[in-house]
Amino acid sequence: MAAKPHLEFERDMVEVQEQIEKLLDMAERKGIDVSGELADLRKKLEVLREETYRDLSPIDQVQVARHPRRPYTLDYLERICKDFVELHGDRSYRDDAAIVGGWGRIGGEPVMIIGHQKGRDMKENLLRNFGMPHPEGYRKALRLMRMAEKFGRPVVTLIDTPGAYPGIGAEKRGQAEAIAMNLREMARFRIPLVSVVLGEGGSGGALALGVTDRILIFEHAIYSVISPEGCAAILWRSAEHRDKAAAALKLTSGNLHKLGVVDEIIPEPPGGAHSDWDAAAQSLEEALVRHLRELRGMDSEARRQARWAKYGEMGKWKDPS
Question: In a 3-state reduction of DSSP, which class is residue 172?
Fold first, then answer.
Protein backbone atom coordinates (compact mmCIF):
# COMPACT_ATOMS: atom_id res chain seq x y z
CA MET A 1 0.00 0.00 0.00
CA ALA A 2 1.37 3.42 -0.96
CA ALA A 3 2.03 5.79 1.94
CA LYS A 4 -0.49 8.56 2.37
CA PRO A 5 0.97 12.02 1.66
CA HIS A 6 1.66 14.13 4.73
CA LEU A 7 3.25 17.42 5.72
CA GLU A 8 6.65 17.66 7.40
CA PHE A 9 5.23 18.84 10.72
CA GLU A 10 2.82 15.87 10.69
CA ARG A 11 5.65 13.33 10.79
CA ASP A 12 5.21 12.36 14.45
CA MET A 13 1.47 11.89 13.95
CA VAL A 14 2.03 9.74 10.88
CA GLU A 15 4.48 7.50 12.78
CA VAL A 16 1.93 6.87 15.54
CA GLN A 17 -0.80 6.21 12.95
CA GLU A 18 1.44 3.66 11.25
CA GLN A 19 2.03 1.95 14.60
CA ILE A 20 -1.74 1.73 15.10
CA GLU A 21 -2.24 0.20 11.65
CA LYS A 22 0.53 -2.36 12.20
CA LEU A 23 -0.95 -3.30 15.57
CA LEU A 24 -4.41 -3.77 14.04
CA ASP A 25 -2.95 -5.88 11.25
CA MET A 26 -1.07 -8.07 13.72
CA ALA A 27 -4.17 -8.49 15.88
CA GLU A 28 -6.18 -9.61 12.86
CA ARG A 29 -3.53 -12.05 11.62
CA LYS A 30 -2.67 -13.61 15.00
CA GLY A 31 -6.01 -13.20 16.77
CA ILE A 32 -4.58 -11.50 19.84
CA ASP A 33 -6.07 -8.79 22.04
CA VAL A 34 -4.29 -5.44 21.60
CA SER A 35 -7.04 -3.19 22.96
CA GLY A 36 -4.86 -1.78 25.74
CA GLU A 37 -1.98 -0.88 23.43
CA LEU A 38 -4.40 0.56 20.89
CA ALA A 39 -6.06 2.78 23.49
CA ASP A 40 -2.65 4.19 24.51
CA LEU A 41 -1.58 4.86 20.93
CA ARG A 42 -4.89 6.49 19.99
CA LYS A 43 -4.68 8.75 23.02
CA LYS A 44 -1.12 9.66 22.05
CA LEU A 45 -2.28 10.43 18.49
CA GLU A 46 -5.11 12.62 19.75
CA VAL A 47 -2.72 14.64 21.94
CA LEU A 48 -0.23 15.00 19.07
CA ARG A 49 -2.94 16.27 16.74
CA GLU A 50 -4.15 18.87 19.22
CA GLU A 51 -0.61 20.07 19.98
CA THR A 52 0.51 20.14 16.35
CA TYR A 53 -2.49 22.08 15.07
CA ARG A 54 -2.89 24.42 18.04
CA ASP A 55 -0.35 27.06 16.98
CA LEU A 56 0.40 26.70 13.28
CA SER A 57 2.42 29.46 11.63
CA PRO A 58 0.87 31.23 8.61
CA ILE A 59 2.99 29.22 6.17
CA ASP A 60 1.99 26.01 7.96
CA GLN A 61 -1.64 27.04 7.48
CA VAL A 62 -0.94 27.47 3.77
CA GLN A 63 0.41 23.93 3.58
CA VAL A 64 -2.63 22.54 5.38
CA ALA A 65 -4.96 24.43 3.03
CA ARG A 66 -3.16 22.78 0.11
CA HIS A 67 -2.98 19.32 1.69
CA PRO A 68 -3.37 16.66 -1.05
CA ARG A 69 -5.79 14.68 1.15
CA ARG A 70 -7.99 17.66 2.00
CA PRO A 71 -11.64 17.14 0.93
CA TYR A 72 -12.73 19.00 -2.20
CA THR A 73 -16.12 20.24 -3.37
CA LEU A 74 -17.42 16.89 -4.66
CA ASP A 75 -16.26 15.15 -1.49
CA TYR A 76 -18.40 17.51 0.57
CA LEU A 77 -21.38 17.30 -1.78
CA GLU A 78 -21.34 13.52 -1.47
CA ARG A 79 -21.78 13.94 2.29
CA ILE A 80 -24.06 16.96 2.75
CA CYS A 81 -26.08 17.26 -0.45
CA LYS A 82 -29.13 15.17 -1.32
CA ASP A 83 -30.26 14.60 -4.91
CA PHE A 84 -27.36 16.52 -6.48
CA VAL A 85 -27.80 16.96 -10.23
CA GLU A 86 -24.73 18.39 -11.97
CA LEU A 87 -25.25 20.90 -14.79
CA HIS A 88 -22.66 21.48 -17.49
CA GLY A 89 -21.39 24.08 -19.92
CA ASP A 90 -21.45 27.84 -20.39
CA ARG A 91 -23.62 27.65 -23.57
CA SER A 92 -20.91 29.50 -25.44
CA TYR A 93 -17.62 27.59 -25.61
CA ARG A 94 -17.29 24.40 -23.51
CA ASP A 95 -17.73 22.77 -20.12
CA ASP A 96 -14.92 23.66 -17.70
CA ALA A 97 -14.36 20.79 -15.24
CA ALA A 98 -12.47 23.09 -12.84
CA ILE A 99 -15.89 24.33 -11.71
CA VAL A 100 -18.76 22.00 -10.86
CA GLY A 101 -22.30 23.05 -10.13
CA GLY A 102 -25.90 22.00 -10.06
CA TRP A 103 -29.11 21.62 -8.06
CA GLY A 104 -29.20 19.82 -4.74
CA ARG A 105 -30.73 19.86 -1.27
CA ILE A 106 -28.94 20.98 1.87
CA GLY A 107 -30.91 20.54 5.05
CA GLY A 108 -33.92 19.70 2.91
CA GLU A 109 -33.81 23.04 1.06
CA PRO A 110 -33.26 23.19 -2.74
CA VAL A 111 -30.16 25.24 -3.53
CA MET A 112 -27.82 25.88 -6.42
CA ILE A 113 -24.35 24.68 -5.42
CA ILE A 114 -21.25 25.79 -7.33
CA GLY A 115 -17.61 25.11 -6.46
CA HIS A 116 -14.03 24.79 -7.62
CA GLN A 117 -12.85 21.21 -8.07
CA LYS A 118 -9.25 19.96 -7.95
CA GLY A 119 -8.01 16.50 -8.90
CA ARG A 120 -6.51 13.70 -6.81
CA ASP A 121 -4.03 12.38 -9.38
CA MET A 122 -2.31 13.69 -12.48
CA LYS A 123 -5.01 12.47 -14.87
CA GLU A 124 -7.79 14.14 -12.89
CA ASN A 125 -5.73 17.29 -12.30
CA LEU A 126 -5.27 17.66 -16.04
CA LEU A 127 -9.03 17.32 -16.46
CA ARG A 128 -9.73 19.80 -13.64
CA ASN A 129 -6.76 22.03 -14.57
CA PHE A 130 -5.58 21.85 -10.93
CA GLY A 131 -8.71 23.70 -9.85
CA MET A 132 -7.87 26.81 -11.93
CA PRO A 133 -10.90 27.76 -14.06
CA HIS A 134 -10.88 29.19 -17.55
CA PRO A 135 -13.34 32.00 -18.39
CA GLU A 136 -15.93 29.47 -19.53
CA GLY A 137 -15.88 28.03 -16.00
CA TYR A 138 -16.87 31.38 -14.53
CA ARG A 139 -19.46 31.88 -17.26
CA LYS A 140 -20.92 28.46 -16.39
CA ALA A 141 -21.06 29.53 -12.74
CA LEU A 142 -22.84 32.77 -13.69
CA ARG A 143 -25.32 30.88 -15.88
CA LEU A 144 -26.21 28.65 -12.94
CA MET A 145 -26.51 31.59 -10.55
CA ARG A 146 -28.87 33.34 -12.97
CA MET A 147 -30.93 30.16 -13.12
CA ALA A 148 -31.15 30.15 -9.32
CA GLU A 149 -32.22 33.81 -9.37
CA LYS A 150 -34.94 32.96 -11.89
CA PHE A 151 -36.39 30.30 -9.60
CA GLY A 152 -35.79 32.20 -6.37
CA ARG A 153 -33.42 29.63 -4.87
CA PRO A 154 -30.31 30.33 -2.73
CA VAL A 155 -26.79 29.86 -4.06
CA VAL A 156 -23.96 28.21 -2.14
CA THR A 157 -20.44 28.56 -3.55
CA LEU A 158 -17.48 26.45 -2.38
CA ILE A 159 -14.14 28.14 -2.98
CA ASP A 160 -10.91 26.16 -3.40
CA THR A 161 -8.53 27.40 -6.09
CA PRO A 162 -4.96 28.71 -6.41
CA GLY A 163 -6.47 31.29 -8.78
CA ALA A 164 -7.98 31.70 -12.21
CA TYR A 165 -5.97 30.09 -15.02
CA PRO A 166 -3.53 32.72 -16.43
CA GLY A 167 -2.85 31.04 -19.81
CA ILE A 168 -2.88 32.84 -23.16
CA GLY A 169 -6.01 31.02 -24.32
CA ALA A 170 -7.90 32.01 -21.18
CA GLU A 171 -6.84 35.63 -21.61
CA LYS A 172 -7.90 35.59 -25.26
CA ARG A 173 -11.35 34.31 -24.28
CA GLY A 174 -11.84 37.09 -21.74
CA GLN A 175 -10.71 35.82 -18.34
CA ALA A 176 -10.72 39.26 -16.70
CA GLU A 177 -14.11 40.14 -18.21
CA ALA A 178 -15.65 36.85 -17.04
CA ILE A 179 -14.47 37.43 -13.46
CA ALA A 180 -15.59 41.06 -13.49
CA MET A 181 -19.03 40.07 -14.77
CA ASN A 182 -19.44 37.59 -11.91
CA LEU A 183 -18.48 40.25 -9.36
CA ARG A 184 -21.03 42.69 -10.76
CA GLU A 185 -23.88 40.22 -11.11
CA MET A 186 -23.37 38.61 -7.70
CA ALA A 187 -23.60 42.05 -6.12
CA ARG A 188 -27.00 42.53 -7.81
CA PHE A 189 -28.74 39.23 -7.11
CA ARG A 190 -31.78 39.30 -4.82
CA ILE A 191 -31.49 35.67 -3.69
CA PRO A 192 -29.50 34.54 -0.61
CA LEU A 193 -25.82 33.89 -1.35
CA VAL A 194 -23.37 32.04 0.90
CA SER A 195 -19.74 31.21 0.10
CA VAL A 196 -17.34 28.91 1.95
CA VAL A 197 -13.55 28.84 1.55
CA LEU A 198 -12.70 25.13 1.76
CA GLY A 199 -8.93 25.27 1.24
CA GLU A 200 -7.22 27.81 -0.99
CA GLY A 201 -8.96 31.07 -1.79
CA GLY A 202 -6.64 32.58 -4.36
CA SER A 203 -6.98 36.02 -5.93
CA GLY A 204 -9.77 36.99 -8.36
CA GLY A 205 -10.26 33.34 -9.22
CA ALA A 206 -11.71 32.87 -5.73
CA LEU A 207 -13.47 36.22 -5.52
CA ALA A 208 -15.41 35.41 -8.70
CA LEU A 209 -17.47 33.02 -6.54
CA GLY A 210 -17.16 35.04 -3.34
CA VAL A 211 -19.34 38.17 -3.54
CA THR A 212 -21.96 36.81 -1.17
CA ASP A 213 -24.09 37.77 1.83
CA ARG A 214 -22.06 35.53 4.11
CA ILE A 215 -18.47 34.41 3.70
CA LEU A 216 -17.49 31.38 5.79
CA ILE A 217 -14.03 29.84 5.99
CA PHE A 218 -12.69 26.57 7.33
CA GLU A 219 -10.31 26.90 10.25
CA HIS A 220 -7.19 25.97 8.27
CA ALA A 221 -8.17 27.50 4.93
CA ILE A 222 -6.60 30.64 3.46
CA TYR A 223 -8.01 33.57 1.47
CA SER A 224 -5.71 36.08 -0.18
CA VAL A 225 -5.15 38.39 -3.14
CA ILE A 226 -1.97 36.48 -4.06
CA SER A 227 -0.09 33.36 -3.03
CA PRO A 228 2.81 33.71 -0.54
CA GLU A 229 5.20 32.53 -3.26
CA GLY A 230 3.91 35.15 -5.73
CA CYS A 231 4.05 37.89 -3.13
CA ALA A 232 7.61 36.96 -2.14
CA ALA A 233 8.72 36.90 -5.78
CA ILE A 234 7.38 40.44 -6.29
CA LEU A 235 8.48 42.05 -3.02
CA TRP A 236 11.72 40.19 -2.27
CA ARG A 237 12.55 38.87 -5.73
CA SER A 238 12.63 35.31 -4.37
CA ALA A 239 10.01 32.74 -3.42
CA GLU A 240 12.32 31.72 -0.55
CA HIS A 241 10.72 34.52 1.49
CA ARG A 242 7.28 32.92 1.35
CA ASP A 243 7.19 32.54 5.16
CA LYS A 244 7.54 36.30 5.57
CA ALA A 245 4.99 36.92 2.82
CA ALA A 246 2.44 34.53 4.37
CA ALA A 247 2.64 36.41 7.67
CA ALA A 248 2.33 39.82 6.00
CA LEU A 249 -0.67 38.85 3.85
CA LYS A 250 -2.88 38.08 6.91
CA LEU A 251 -4.39 35.19 4.93
CA THR A 252 -5.30 32.87 7.81
CA SER A 253 -8.86 32.40 9.03
CA GLY A 254 -8.20 34.13 12.35
CA ASN A 255 -6.75 37.24 10.75
CA LEU A 256 -9.49 37.36 8.11
CA HIS A 257 -12.18 37.18 10.78
CA LYS A 258 -10.55 39.97 12.80
CA LEU A 259 -10.37 42.14 9.68
CA GLY A 260 -14.04 41.53 8.88
CA VAL A 261 -13.35 39.82 5.56
CA VAL A 262 -15.06 36.59 6.63
CA ASP A 263 -18.14 36.23 8.82
CA GLU A 264 -17.50 32.90 10.51
CA ILE A 265 -14.75 30.31 10.99
CA ILE A 266 -15.93 26.72 10.60
CA PRO A 267 -14.00 24.50 13.05
CA GLU A 268 -12.08 21.53 11.69
CA PRO A 269 -11.59 18.17 13.41
CA PRO A 270 -8.27 17.67 15.27
CA GLY A 271 -5.61 17.14 12.65
CA GLY A 272 -7.40 19.19 10.00
CA ALA A 273 -10.26 18.46 7.61
CA HIS A 274 -8.12 15.88 5.79
CA SER A 275 -8.02 13.73 8.94
CA ASP A 276 -11.81 13.26 9.13
CA TRP A 277 -13.87 14.15 6.06
CA ASP A 278 -17.17 13.20 7.68
CA ALA A 279 -16.65 15.45 10.71
CA ALA A 280 -15.61 18.36 8.48
CA ALA A 281 -18.69 17.84 6.29
CA GLN A 282 -20.97 17.81 9.33
CA SER A 283 -19.54 21.16 10.50
CA LEU A 284 -20.03 22.58 7.01
CA GLU A 285 -23.63 21.41 6.76
CA GLU A 286 -24.55 22.82 10.16
CA ALA A 287 -23.10 26.23 9.28
CA LEU A 288 -24.78 26.36 5.87
CA VAL A 289 -28.21 25.38 7.19
CA ARG A 290 -28.00 28.05 9.90
CA HIS A 291 -26.90 30.88 7.60
CA LEU A 292 -29.35 29.99 4.85
CA ARG A 293 -32.17 30.03 7.39
CA GLU A 294 -31.12 33.47 8.64
CA LEU A 295 -30.78 34.93 5.14
CA ARG A 296 -34.06 33.48 3.96
CA GLY A 297 -35.83 35.38 6.75
CA MET A 298 -34.59 38.76 5.48
CA ASP A 299 -36.30 41.02 2.97
CA SER A 300 -34.59 40.62 -0.42
CA GLU A 301 -33.81 44.31 -0.88
CA ALA A 302 -32.56 44.68 2.69
CA ARG A 303 -30.35 41.64 2.11
CA ARG A 304 -28.91 43.14 -1.05
CA GLN A 305 -28.28 46.51 0.58
CA ALA A 306 -26.50 44.76 3.46
CA ARG A 307 -24.34 42.90 0.92
CA TRP A 308 -23.29 46.18 -0.71
CA ALA A 309 -22.53 47.75 2.67
CA LYS A 310 -20.51 44.69 3.68
CA TYR A 311 -18.12 45.00 0.76
CA GLY A 312 -18.03 48.78 0.95
CA GLU A 313 -16.55 48.50 4.44
CA MET A 314 -13.76 46.11 3.44
CA GLY A 315 -10.43 47.85 3.15
CA LYS A 316 -11.99 51.18 4.05
CA TRP A 317 -9.35 53.71 5.09
CA LYS A 318 -9.65 55.07 8.62
CA ASP A 319 -7.82 58.25 9.50
CA PRO A 320 -5.70 57.41 12.59
CA SER A 321 -6.01 61.01 13.80
Answer: helix
